[in-house]
UniProtKB/TrEMBL annotation:
Keywords: DNA-binding, Phosphoprotein, Transcription, Transcription regulation. SUPFAM superfamilies: C-terminal effector domain of the bipartite response regulators, CheY-like. The modification 4-aspartylphosphate is found at residue 54. Residues 3-121 form the Response regulatory domain. InterPro entries: CheY-like_superfamily, NreC/VraR/RcsB-like_REC, Sig_transdc_resp-reg_C-effctor, Sig_transdc_resp-reg_receiver, Tscrpt_reg_LuxR_C, WalR-like. PROSITE patterns: HTH_LUXR_2, RESPONSE_REGULATORY. Signal peptide: none annotated. The keyword Zinc does not apply. This is Response regulator transcription factor. SMART domains: HTH_LUXR, REC.
């Protein structure tokens, strides 16, 4: 059972998400929070698998709450998906850098929300359809001069290649087609790369791809 915590200051939003999630045989809502402070407290208490975290909340906003969660070693297994009203919310960029596993717009289709919850549990980054490359482009535009790529020395040439493709926004299936391998093989390469670099999930791998200079602005095509 995938345990989800809902953090949103709008009770109607929480009620809608709860009704959808609790209707699934493999997903259940572990708790609800109406502000960031309560969200962090409940996350530490309940240890959910996934947190659906609104960006704008009273007391402590979702971005600050996410930083507290992702920087706590005891909560390393908790995945945070940010919720926003707008696809290009100004805080989404920093949320990804802070360790969030992705974000969804609140009016996303129910099937997409369910896919999101299941995907982040499997270690995948989750971004609303059509937004991945734009978010990466935004990261590229804001990123500083690449740091030394010494951290990548532990990677094989194929793992570097896979990491670059992840950084360009390709899914495992797209990577598999590009490299002429099976999707399972592509996923294995991605997983090994994350382990070697200590990345929480795919979203952080994208960040590292840019910060190391492995992927540069203008490579998105």
């Amino acid at each position: 059972m995938i345990r989800v915590l809902l953090a949103d200051d709008q009770s109607l939003v929480r009620a809608g998400f709860r009704a959808l999630l609790d209707a699934q045989p493999d997903i259940g809502v572990a708790g609800e929070a109406s502000d960031g402070e309560e969200a962090v407290r409940l996350i530490r208490e309940l240890r959910p698998d996934v947190v659906l975290m609104d960006i704008r909340m009273p007391a402590l906003d979702g971005l600050a709450a996410t930083r507290r969660v992702t920087r706590d070693p005891d909560l390393a297994d908790v995945r945070v998906v940010m919720l926003t009203t707008f696809e290009l919310d100004e805080y989404v960029f920093e949320a990804i850098r802070s360790g969030a596993s992705g974000f969804l717009v609140k009016d996303t289709e129910p099937e997409e929300l369910l896919r999101a919850v299941r995907a982040v549990v499997d270690g995948d980054a989750l971004l609303s359809p059509g937004v991945t490359r734009r978010l990466i482009a935004e990261f590229a535009a804001r990123s500083k001069e690449p740091a030394a790529a010494g951290a990548l020395s532990a990677l094989t040439e194929r793992e570097r290649e896979v990491m670059a493709l992840v950084g360009m926004g390709l899914s495992n299936e797209e990577i598999a087609r590009r490299l002429v391998v099976s999707p399972l093989t592509a996923k294995t390469h991605v997983s090994r790369t994350m382990v070697k670099l200590g990345a929480r999930d795919r979203a952080q791998l994208v960040v590292l791809a840019y910060e190391s200079g492995l992927v540069r602005p203008g490579w998105l095509g």
